[in-house]
Fold this sequence. Notes:
The chain is mainly α. 70% of the residues lie in helices and 0% in strands. Helix 5 packs parallel to helix 7 (121-166). The model is unreliable at 1-7 and 235-241 (pLDDT under 50).
Amino acid sequence: MSEFRRYRIPSKVAFVIVSFALGSLGDGLNPFQAIYLNCIGWNESSIGVALSVMGFSSLTIQTLAGDLIDKTKLDRRYFLAVSSVVSGISASAIMLVREGNQDHALIFTSKMIQGVSTVFIGPSLAAVTLATFGPKHFDHMMASNIFWSHIGGFMSAILAGFVAYAYYPNIKYCFLVIGISAAIAVFSVFSLPIGDPMMGRGFHGKREHLLDEDGNEDVSQAPEKEIEKGPNENKMEHLESEHTQEAATYLSVFTDPAIAVFSITCFFFQ
């Protein structure tokens, strides 16, 4: 175990790799898919329905997805891995569409599945980030995740363009980029640390004040009595703290004036 820890990818690097790979999932190459469907004979109304199905399914399930990720006792990295695989497969289903205005059921179904699966990616990554770096460094790390996700989406679009050019007129092979990105994300996701699952829910962890900007514990800043405690004592304190902290209810959250104003602003902004 000590050898594994010695050569493990640093937390920041692991999050960069995963965020970069996730960039092409979700809406990453959707504009290219719409253009491709139009080129092989789909009309504009069918394309609009396909994209709307994905958006509507995401909108419908995203609140439930966030609630599940927040409350689950399971390792959130599994949610991130599964949603990446499902998103990659469903987005790549477009390669099976035949010439002409047909195979609507395939695309509509795959887009609905893609819309449901992609909404788990954001909450899962955010929860793992919070669990690893704590609230003190969360904003900075989430900004980094989003930045590298955009870079990944940009690079995947460029790579898709090169592949389409190289294999023209079989430009559908450019969508293999989505599958490759999903594979990279899945193989990289378990290099992410588990962190403190309680902190991932937004609770205060017992040792969150010891975390540095790399997600490691800086024991030099810990009180001497805390350093002397064994792992079993720290585990018991962690469990006791988890039972003493309670999550706010949805009613208390949405009746908070600041959150209410923020929610209304987001509603009209969308």
